[in-house]
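[step 3/7] inverse_fold.run input=structure_tokens len=357
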């Protein structure tokens, strides 16, 4: 039997549950092996359950992908191997495209830019899968080109979760892919210094202006503005112009979330280790609602919390368990089953998820 993770709003009659469906109180709402009907689906949705593990038949249907329960399962899957192959191929083309934009005065072929991201997206059918796959690549050394592709993929997913129309998502893809192009004007030794001096930090911040100047005559102003404004923050603490709230361009407000998530969750040159996704989610919970657009942040947190339902995790007390319920009000604090006990992390002060297993 194969399993797939399905968001509650996508459940349909006739689907069969692959695991018990548990509420936030630890009550079994639907037992494993149940055939869903309209009443059961309604019950699941009204219980606050956001994602369910469903049985599927082995088939070529793109909607029937496996629900992984561990990082090792993802890495050993044919889905991940294909994703990684497509990613590496696209990264080569992204590097060629970005370098050409910096070196020449040619206009940018947006169809080609978007196609590079679509090649990678074509092997995944849901946003949850994109984050799963990228999480398994985060231990590889990152650079401007890989980061740009990561952020483009993540931003497209967040845009879909935020229910943006297709033509806006195409703009998000292109803008995110180009958002850090100004870093190609920064010397390698400064860009990759793990402990930059105060002067080097000031220099690094200029990449936003460099990026805008590279793009302003080659792309639409909407896309060029993302390069300039993706480090602005809703509370005015960002740079380079200290813009606040809706002064920050719309696409920049969305792409900033993907940019920060990838920056914190991935490994960087300079030997900084990758972080557990739940550690980054906790940071968003703590500071995000002051610094980011609430609409896009809520869409991101809702989607990312569903991604790891069913995953095995290690807790800060050393015990291991399985995420069985995504907590929409505290995404970093889902319900976890440890042995035969259900633990609502939202009610356990100091107990955190520290690792996906």
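[step 3/7] decode complete -> sequence:
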């Amino acid at each position: 039997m194969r399993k797939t993770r399905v968001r509650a709003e996508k459940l349909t009659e006739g689907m069969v549950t692959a695991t018990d469906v548990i509420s936030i109180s630890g009550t079994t709402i639907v037992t494993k092996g149940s055939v869903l009907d309209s009443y059961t689906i309604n019950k699941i949705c009204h219980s606050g359950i956001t994602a369910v593990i469903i049985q599927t038949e082995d088939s070529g249907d793109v909607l029937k992908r496996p629900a992984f329960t561990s990082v090792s399962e993802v890495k050993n899957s044919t889905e991940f191997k294909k994703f990684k192959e497509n990613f590496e191929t696209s990264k080569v083309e992204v590097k060629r495209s970005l370098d050409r934009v910096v070196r020449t005065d040619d206009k940018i072929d947006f169809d080609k830019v978007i196609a590079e991201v679509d090649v990678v997206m074509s092997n995944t059918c849901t946003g949850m899968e994109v984050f799963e796959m990228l999480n398994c690549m985060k231990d590889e050394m990152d650079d401007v080109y890989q980061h740009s592709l990561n952020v483009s993929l993540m931003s497209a997913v967040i845009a879909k979760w935020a229910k943006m129309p297709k033509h806006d998502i195409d703009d998000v893809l292109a803008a995110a892919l180009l958002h850090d192009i100004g870093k190609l004007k920064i010397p390698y030794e400064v860009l990759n210094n793990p402990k930059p001096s105060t002067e080097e930090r000031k220099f690094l911040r200029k990449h936003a202006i460099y990026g805008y100047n590279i793009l302003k005559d080659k792309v639409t102003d909407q896309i060029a503005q993302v390069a300039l404004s993706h480090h602005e923050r809703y509370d005015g603490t960002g740079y380079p112009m200290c813009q606040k709230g809706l002064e920050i361009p719309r696409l920049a407000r969305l792409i900033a979330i993907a940019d920060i998530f990838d920056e914190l969750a991935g490994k960087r040159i300079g030997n900084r280790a990758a972080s557990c996704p739940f550690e980054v989610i906790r940071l968003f919970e703590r500071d995000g609602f002051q610094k980011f657009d609430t609409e896009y942040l809520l869409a991101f947190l809702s989607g990312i919390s569903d991604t790891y339902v069913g995953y095995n995790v290690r807790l800060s007390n050393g015990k291991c368990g399985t995420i069985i319920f995504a907590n929409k009000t505290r995404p970093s604090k889902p319900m976890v089953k440890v042995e035969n006990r259900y633990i609502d992390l939202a009610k356990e002060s100091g107990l955190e998820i520290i690792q996906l297993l």
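[step 4/7] annotate
The two ends are 22 Å apart (CA to CA).
The longest strand covers residues 2-7.
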